[in-house]
Amino acid sequence: MKPQFGVAERFHAAAVLLFLVAPILVAMIVAFSSGNRLDFPPPGLSLRWFGVALGNELFIDGLLVSLVLAAASAVLATIAGTGAALAINHHRFRGRSLVQAAVMLPIAMPTIVLGLGLLFTLSIYDMQPGLLPTILGHAVLGLPYVVAMVTAALASYDTSLERASLNLGAGPARTFLRVTLPLIGNGVVAGGVSAFMISLDNISLSLFISKGDTLPLRLMQQLQSYADPSVAAIATVVVGLSAAGFLLSLAWGARRRRLVEPAPPGAAAGRPPAESKEATA
Amino acid sequence: MRSRALVPWLWLLPAGCLLVPFFVLPLAVTFRNSFWRDDDSGVAVPAFTFANYARVLGDPYYLQVFGNTLWIALLIAALALAIAFPFAWLLARLTGRAQALVFWVVYLPLYVSVVMRAFGWIVILADSGVVNQALLAMGLIRQPIRILFEVEGMVIGMLHRYLPLMIVPLVTALRKLDPSLLRASANLGAGHWYTWRRVVVPAALPGIVAGTQLVFSGVLSDYVTPSLMGASGYQLVAPAIYYEAATNSAWALAGAMATLTLALVSLLLVVANALLRRFAPWAATL
Amino acid sequence: MMLRRRHLLATGLAAPLLGGAHAASAQATTLRVTHFGGPYQILSEIAGQPFEAAKGARVAYSVEISPSALTKLQTQKASPPFDVVLFSRAYGLRAMNGGLLHKVSRSDFPEAAHALPDTVPEAGWGAAMMIDSIDMMARRDLVGEPMTSWFDLWRPALRGKVMLPSAVNGATAFGFIACIVHALGDMKSPATANEAFARLKALKPAVRGFYVDPIQPNQMIERGDIAAAPQFAVRVANSARNTPEVVKVTPKEGVLAVPYDLCIPVNSPSIALAKSYIDFLLTKPVQGALAEKLLASPVRTDVTVPPALAPLVTTDPTRLFFQDEEFAAAKQREWLDRYTREVQN
Description:
The complex is a heterotrimer.
Chain A lengths: L6 H25 L16 H8 L1 H34 L5 H13 L2 H12 L8 H25 L3 H9 L4 H30 L4 H4 L5 H11 L4 H30 L17 H4 L1
Helix pairs in contact in A: 1-11, 2-11, 3-4, 3-6, 3-8, 3-10, 4-6, 6-8, 7-8
Chain B lengths: L1 H32 L3 E2 L5 E2 L5 H8 L1 H34 L2 H16 L2 H12 L4 H8 L13 H25 L3 H9 L4 H29 L3 H6 L7 H11 L3 H29 L7
Antiparallel strand pairs in B: 1-2
Helix pairs in contact in B: 1-12, 2-3, 2-12, 3-7, 3-9, 4-7, 7-9, 8-9, 11-12
Chain C lengths: L1 H17 L4 H4 L3 E6 L7 H13 L2 E6 L2 H10 L9 E4 H9 L29 E13 L22 E4 L4 H15 L5 H14 L3 E5 L4 H8 L4 E5 H10 L3 E4 L5 E9 L7 H11 L2 H11 L25 E2 L3 H20 L1
């Protein structure tokens, strides 16, 4: 039976969506402005700011740097975070509570404090502000999100499946890869995506330990001086990229569904979809 | 078997390699700096003094800053929860493409650059912005309301930034709710509100806890939003720390403020978890 | 450009494997220079490339505002990440006092013979590349009579339409206070300072808000939400260029000169090359390009700007006053605290 949503519920949901989207819509409309300033409504429509933005070497390099940064730090955070979540949730060991708190601490900490502290410790590791320290710093920031998502996925996880696998002779590695990982896959992917986003948008940490060349920093530098629609244009490009990514993942999900046997109509009634990767991508 | 005791630590190894040198150590350095002395020339000089802590805890200005930040964090967490809960409940019951699309919109504020979002809000909330123009045109007000660069504007900006962080954990928790429980409750004669209170909310509690922790911590440590949209008379902790550290080069003082902030947040998390364990053990995360 | 991007991607992917080697030490003839970002990226075109053509050394620019550059120098003192740092003058002094900079003198720069005497400060922390100042920006259509004096801010017609810097925005706020004190008399006299604060306190009702981010008043004034605000001349000029109603006002009492100094970190491996670069920036063609493109006052006395830009760039050194930086540094905390308590609250 399809869930019925009341009028009040729909209205509230629409209002929330509008709230979430409003500033972004405004910014995107300004990106198409034909004027020189951030006027809203714009005096006319034009694509010229997209030309300016895409021709701005600093923006494009910034986008590339940010993408590389986000991907690398997300991978690190996911590996570290998944391991930590498994350790905390599957085993009872001394110091477990402490580890659990420690792993979530980076969220609680003002990022600029971490940035300042890292700047001091970089010289100990003979590192200079740049790409590598920023990847590591962002990974630290993304770690709690991965842990949170994987923990949520583990909450409904049946450890007896693991034991069964081990009893049947599969080694721990194989058990992990073939049993554990697919079942918590949702959480791992959600965590990785969260870590990716956190890195992509980070300013306060990059301010200290990068060379000032990530996209959000470039946007901020531009906004603090010129404040012209090219900033809005490049941000619109990023939104466009993510929309494309989303549509691709939808298509991928549909393709996957077609490859799997469709369940008989009655059995899945009322149950939320068990695996909707698109939802978390 | 002895090797079994090692297993959790093996799983923790990657996280340890990441956190110890790049998180624990910087924290320790910050903590150590808080006991040093700020020299007038802008360097922190090795010493052992509580002067920085005395300064932060004794000066009404700094106490005000902490108070402001706590209040704003609580306010935004409460607002986010109130707004997100009905929305998350609806989103959890959506299926397929509709759900995926709405999720994408929910994530949107997170990867549109915070600079862009702030800029959008500036255009909307300015004295001559969209909101004021509309209200004036409708005759509801005679003079533009000052929202931008006031506390109200900053709250809106922060709420916008942290709402997705409340929505997602709530949806994750609510998705696990078996609809047959709802039907059973209805069948047993429970009214709408009763079901809501005794079935839905407890199931959502882990999500509520996770979301509140994320939003609260996020607001407490937010530097960018108050810098871009904040009210100058309403100082928050993170910009104050940056101001002392980078603009004044008062490293030791900044270290003291940072340590206190961290201690405050940790204390609140621990207290919250203790309360949960007492009253709703299935939702405790520690 | 395409090659650079592929190189960037390759570096990005290889860096974790190679363990983040120092790019600087790999190439001895690359000069690492900082600037403030945004419009300053024009430096690569008007300074970096010509310098490379003339001397054969590549110039690599990165963006650092003064506070973050100072922070990085302090934490990386033994092996600084830059060879030439752009500091606003107050930070240059601070860096010098912290033992972070290599001391220079006027004789290090032959081209300085054509520049203002204040170009290289006594203590020798660097040489000014250009001079910004704390001017006023105003909407000519909203202020009535043209503004000529700092005290025109107190006009009753401007009530609620003035924006002042917040104390958190230390550089602008202090600069503004200095301008008012200087306009009333001797900047070093406590009586004059008291008078200035009394007047500022009286200005409170006229103030729409106190801006933290330097771009805020520009956004407000372009929209007509405010009518006047003290602001850095370069920023005013950029707004005025885009919005004809916004004008730059250089009050007759004088505006505080805020030189942007090129400084050399003390442990830089390329000190001679750095000095050569700084000297290059003091040459006439580069100074002319800086004035035209960045709209800041040149340090050279023989540079002229096209007539169209004349209202946007102050080339008359008599309109500027240079403060005693040591005095300013000593007074900064006190004056900003007073400003916070008496004016902002």
